[in-house]
Q: What sequence folds into this?
């Protein structure tokens, strides 16, 4: 049976955080009640080790967020496209950051499915996860990484995945419409290094032509 103590601890920590914020800055939380205007949309991985607000020392209201397994942006994904549309048209985001991270379990599973992971790695994805990660598995296969050391192969796939997702975002209707209308939206590709805490820019930022 799941431990209720785990859930109770979350609520306890929430209460402590709320009390601390109200004591140090009593007007902050009531201000959030009036709306949001973050300038960055962060499209990242659902991995618990890469929380965007924590690793950038940001506060509620600073970052608009969409996270999923292996930081994907599928062209046909209504959820991702809806978030991108809302971020640009309603919230007013000026930057879209695709953020991968080292030691990504989704990327590792795709390496395994492509036959490029060591025998000790977790098995390849199945079911819904397999369908979701199919484009990443295809990318892993195309990169022919079996001859590389495991760490290098995984790093290569993680970085190439970010590059592909940046291209997918740039080719999306919401970005195309924003650029056509003169909105200065920039699309970035970053890597968060889990073991060091460093956020690394891949230098592939795209803006309107």
A:
């Amino acid at each position: 049976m799941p431990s209720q103590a785990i859930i109770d601890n979350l609520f306890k920590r929430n209460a402590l955080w709320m009390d601390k914020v109200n004591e140090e800055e009593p007007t902050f939380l009531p201000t959030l009640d009036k709306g949001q205007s973050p300038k960055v949309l962060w499209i990242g991985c659902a991995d618990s080790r890469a929380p965007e607000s924590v690793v950038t020392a940001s506060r509620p209201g600073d970052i608009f967020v969409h996270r999923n397994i292996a930081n994907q942006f599928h062209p046909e994904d209504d959820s991702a496209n809806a978030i991108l549309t809302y971020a640009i048209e309603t919230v007013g985001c000026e930057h879209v950051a695709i953020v991968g991270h080292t030691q990504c379990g989704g990327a590792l599973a795709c390496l395994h499915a492509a036959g490029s992971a060591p025998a000790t790695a977790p098995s390849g994805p199945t079911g819904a996860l397999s369908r979701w990660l199919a484009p990443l598995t295809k990318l892993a296969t195309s990169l022919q990484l079996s001859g590389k050391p495991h760490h290098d192969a995984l790093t290569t796939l993680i970085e190439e995945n970010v590059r592909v997702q940046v291209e997918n975002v740039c080719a999306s209707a919401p970005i195309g419409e924003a650029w056509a209308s003169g909105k200065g939206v920039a699309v970035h590709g970053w890597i968060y290094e889990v073991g060091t805490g460093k956020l690394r820019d891949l230098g592939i930022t795209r803006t309107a032509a």
